[in-house]
Structures are given as structure tokens and as C-alpha cells.
Design goal:
Blueprint lengths: L1 H4 L2 H9 L17 H11 L12 H4 L12 E4 L12 E3 L1 E4 L17 E3 L26 E2 L6 E3 L4 H11 L11 H10 L11 H6 L6 H9 L6 H13 L7 H6 L8 H10 L19 E2 L13 H4 L8 E2 L21 H9 L20 H14 L3 H5 L10 H4 L5 E3 L12 E3 L12 E7 L4 E7 L2 E6 L2 E5 L6 E6 L10 E6 L12 E9 L7 E10 L2
Length: 541
């Protein structure tokens, strides 16, 4: 128990010292405890929560991006079908699509590449102060247990409601039709933080000496049972300990001499005066917690809040985010359209966007001279940034994730040989080869539809050719062979795909071993009758 209690002063201080922020609401059904807080921190950064072991909550919500995502990926070229263009939409890369059995299933838009969310990742750093979450507010304050359908928090539980959404979302962390029983069973058997390195001291202390997730749920909730409700409670508790209240503006409000520069003070006065920013970004939280239509894009592109309320008056409205730490963000607005605070101010300087249907009447052209504009941008970009967030200092510290160390496509090498339509089969090898991984899989795509695929796994690599077909694994070293009839339209070039799944044993003695894998596709569309993929190293750890 002392592993958890040792971190209590840190969490208690984080919640108590709220400075210029409003008092933080905490639902009585889920009081903050150090055991829940450290468990939530582990779960937030746990890539094993996803179905491919590459996505944690913290993958898309990082301190270095002010609580958002440092990555900015194209979701859609917009109605004009052209990119780059002003109607492009950007989001966060999630998982490659997989079916209900967690086998690769090419997506109509993204194929077998990681799917991209249709909206940018909002900051989670001030989420505890909002009565509804997500850009459209679909995570309400009423938290309903998804496994029992019981209302557990009648009000103030938006964090709990939001926490569970991405874990079962097929484009974010999950395969299609993922069940909570799959998530909870995986955590029951997973070695905590097996994929992460450079753990902060409190996390390292919590997982020391072979600690398990059931044991940590026991400490947090009184029994080892892992449930969706408890996952939500722990994740929400951790987020409530993140109080970014040490910005220059906060210190200025407390009377600290020199906390803000004169330029930032000037910018603050412009913010509260001719720029009219405070009308929606109320100082303190720097949000009025409302939903507004900025005329950024046509309502038809994204109905926003209307999708949640079915109220026509809410069409095209999105949550007004907090501006705290916005200077660290590189993807701004719900569609990720802007990358700098200066671009956003230029947008507001002209009175917002050009689409007038239900556009907020507060948006009018502004009269702000260039120097005042520069002062305002300085204030918003720098004076609202908590230096602990920018530096990744406790409580805003984090581990290094496997997805930061392992290339997006895994460790691939060599060349493949083309099959029908001159298509070279693609090996899908991004899933980390961590021992105990019950979701380990290797896929193939871009092959001849309906062909037979063979996955060869060997202890040795190769760099040779057999009848002109490139071979990247030592086929004579008794490799393991897995035969897989490929899906996709029969005979169609590039339509073939398949998956081989096998759990990796939790055997520590295997750590450090590298295996080598390659797909061979029996392809009647080429003279030699065979195509091959690149090789992939399976580095067991």
C-alpha cells in the first residue's frame, strides 16, 4: 500500500493549489484518492489499452502539445477534394482498421494505414472544469456504466463519460465491435507499462516488484475486479490532479512582481478590450464553457453540437476550449485548420469564417493595430502557459511510449517482389512484439485478392532470390509457416489482405531475441506464381 500512499502529497497539493482557476468540481461518487490517481496515470499512458498496443490516451493528448496532439494528420480533403486547401480537415492517427476478430480489414478511406479522427484532439488539461466534453459535448455529466447501464454519477461526471469513449472507438484505440470484456481481460493479464520506458518516479514505484493491475485495482477500489466503471473512475481521477495554474498570468494575479512582461500586460488589456476575446474565453478558465459556430466551415461538413442535441439551433456549434497552454498547440480549432495562435487571431481579426449559417453574432471584424496584435498573441501564447506543462515536470510528467521508439510500420528491411498488377505485397508489422501480448498479429495487404498467403517466421534473416523472388528470411532454418487464405475480390490486383494472430508467451527468457518474418503470396497472375513482401524484424521484449 505504501507505494500508492507515498505519492499522496503530490496529488493533494496539485488539487489544492488552483490559483486563478475556478474551484474544480469533483463528483462525490468518485472522490480523489492517491490510489485511484496513480492507477489512472498508469492507465492513461498504457498502450496495452488499445487493440494494437500502439495507442494510449496519452498518444493523442500530450503535455508538449498543451494537452493536444503533436501529430497532425489529414482526415479529409474537404468538399473540394483538393489538398492543401482551406477546407481540409485534420485529426489524430489512431489504429489501422480491424474487424471484430482484430484481423486487418482495409478501410474504405484509409486502407490499412492508421485511421485519422475527423476532429483534432482537444486538450485534456482543463477537461475537469467542463460540464460536457468532446468538441460536441456528447460526453455528458451523467455517467452511465456501459456494462450495467446503471447511472452512477447523475451530474458532474463528464470526465468519466469521456474517458471510456476512445477505448472502444474503432478508429482510435479499438478494433471493430470491441467488447469491454476484451479490455478488462487484457489488463488482468498484462504486465503494467510493459511497453513504456523512462517511467516517472511515481509510476516506477507503483509497478515495482511485479505489481499487477488486479493488485492496483484492489488498492484503489477494495477488490481486484477490473471493470469499465473503475477504469473510467481512475482515468478521471488522474486528470483531476492535473491543475495547470502556474502560468505567468496566474502568478500575475497573485501579485508576483514581473510575472508578466509589459508586452504581455498590454496583450491582456487588448484581450479584455478591443479584441473582445474575453467574451468567449472568460479569464480564469479562459472559456465560457459554451458551444459556438465560428463560420469556420459549412454546417454540412460537420454539424457539431447538433449531432448531440438534435437541436437545429446548435448546428455547426463546437465547444469553446480553454486557452490555457494553447501556445504549445500545433493543431487548432476542431478541424485542426490552424497551426499557430497568430493564424487564429488573423481569423478572428476578419470577424471569423465566411460561412454565415448560424454563425455566432459576437464575431465581428476587429480594429486591432499590428503592435497590439503582437502583444495579444504574446499574451495568449506565453502568459497562459504553465512552465511545468511545457517542461514536462511533475505532475505533468510522462513515460516514453513504445510508439515513440518503434517505427510506424515496425522494423522492416529488404525488398519484396511484385505480383499481379505489379503490386508488391505489404507486410503489416507495426504491432509491438512485447512478451505476453495477447493481441500480437502480422498482416499482409496490397496482394492479389483471394490468393493463398504464407507467413514465414525464421530465426535468421536472408538476402537472396529464389527463381527471381526476393527472400528476406532463411527458409531452410526450419521456419514457422502460417497459411492464410487472403480476403479481397478474387484475382484483383492489390485487393488481397490477411492476418496471422498468435499470443506471445510471457516468458522473460525470450526477451532480446529477434525473429524475422516475411509474407509469400501464391499469385497466379505472374509467371513465377509467387510474390513476396519486405521482411520484418520481430524484436521480442
Amino acid at each position: 500500500m505504501r507505494n500508492f500512499l507515498a505519492v499522496f502529497p503530490l496529488f493533494a497539493a496539485a488539487v489544492a493549489a488552483q490559483g486563478g482557476l475556478p474551484n474544480q468540481p469533483v463528483p462525490p461518487q468518485n472522490p480523489i484518492t492517491p490510489q485511484k490517481a496513480i492507477l489512472g496515470k498508469l492507465l492513461f499512458w498504457e498502450e496495452q489499452m488499445s487493440s494494437n498496443n500502439r495507442v494510449a490516451c496519452g498518444t493523442c493528448h500530450t503535455f508538449a502539445a498543451g494537452g493536444g496532439d503533436l501529430r497532425r494528420a489529414l482526415n479529409s480533403a474537404g468538399p473540394d477534394g483538393v489538398t492543401p486547401s482551406p477546407d481540409d480537415t485534420f485529426g489524430s492517427p489512431g489504429v489501422s482498421r480491424a474487424d471484430a476478430n482484430n484481423e486487418y480489414l482495409p478501410d474504405a478511406v484509409f486502407g490499412v494505414a492508421p485511421q485519422v479522427t475527423p476532429r483534432s484532439s482537444p486538450s485534456f488539461l482543463t477537461a475537469a472544469w467542463f460540464p460536457e466534453l468532446f468538441w460536441d459535448g456528447r460526453a455528458s455529466g451523467t455517467f452511465v456504466d456501459p456494462e450495467t447501464n446503471q447511472t452512477l454519477i447523475p451530474g458532474g461526471g463528464a470526465l468519466e463519460s469521456q474517458a471510456l469513449g476512445p477505448i472502444l472507438a474503432g478508429n482510435e484505440m479499438a478494433h471493430d465491435a470491441r467488447l469491454w470484456s476484451e479490455v478488462t481481460h487484457k489488463l488482468e493479464t498484462a504486465r503494467p507499462m510493459a511497453l513504456a520506458t523512462n517511467l516517472p518516479a511515481d509510476m516506477a514505484n507503483a509497478v515495482a516488484n511485479g505489481a499487477t493491475y488486479p493488485a492496483m485495482f484492489q488498492a484503489a477500489f477494495g477488490s481486484p475486479d477490473i471493470t469499465a466503471q473503475r477504469i473510467a473512475y481512475a482515468l478521471a481521477t488522474y486528470q483531476r490532479t492535473l491543475v495547470p495554474d502556474q502560468s505567468p498570468w496566474d502568478r500575475f494575479q497573485r501579485g508576483v512582481p514581473g510575472a508578466m512582461t509589459q508586452q504581455q500586460i498590454n496583450g491582456m488589456n487588448i484581450f479584455n478590450g478591443p479584441a473582445r476575446c474575453n467574451l468567449c474565453h472568460t479569464p480564469g478558465l479562459f472559456s465560457d464553457r459554451q458551444f459556438r459556430n465560428l463560420g469556420l466551415q459549412p454546417v454540412a461538413a460537420d454539424r457539431g453540437r447538433q449531432n448531440t442535441t438534435n437541436n437545429n439551433a446548435d448546428r455547426g456549434k463546437f465547444k469553446v476550449p480553454s486557452l490555457r497552454n494553447v501556445g504549445l498547440r500545433t493543431s487548432l480549432m476542431h478541424n485542426g485548420q490552424f497551426t499557430t495562435v497568430g493564424q487564429v487571431f488573423g481569423f478572428y481579426l476578419g470577424g471569423g469564417g465566411p460561412f454565415t449559417d448560424n454563425k455566432d453574432p459576437l464575431l465581428v471584424p476587429l480594429q486591432v493595430p499590428p503592435q497590439q496584435a503582437n502583444d495579444l498573441i504574446n499574451f495568449v501564447s506565453n502568459a497562459l502557459t504553465d512552465p511545468r506543462v511545457a517542461a514536462g515536470q511533475a505532475p505533468f510528467d510522462r513515460p516514453t511510449l513504445a510508439s515513440q521508439r518503434i517505427p510506424n510500420a515496425g522494423f522492416q528491411y529488404g525488398q519484396g517482389s511484385a505480383g499481379t498488377g505489379n503490386r508488391v505485397p505489404t507486410i503489416l508489422s507495426e504491432v509491438p512484439a512485447n512478451l505476453g501480448n495477447v493481441d500480437f498479429k502480422i498482416g499482409v495487404a496490397n496482394a492479389r485478392g483471394g490468393a493463398l498467403g504464407t507467413l514465414a517466421v525464421s530465426v535468421l534473416p536472408a538476402n537472396t532470390q529464389i527463381q527471381g523472388v526476393r527472400v528476406n528470411v532463411e527458409v531452410f532454418s526450419t521456419p514457422a509457416l502460417f497459411y492464410e487464405p487472403l480476403g479481397g475480390a478474387n484475382g484483383v490486383a492489390g485487393a488481397g489482405y490477411g492476418t496471422v494472430k498468435f499470443a506471445l508467451p510471457p516468458e522473460p527468457s525470450l526477451a532480446g531475441i529477434t525473429l524475422f518474418a516475411q509474407w509469400f503470396v501464391w499469385d497466379a497472375g505472374v509467371p513465377v506464381g509467387l510474390a513476396s513482401s519486405r521482411g520484418a524484424e520481430l524484436r521480442l521484449f
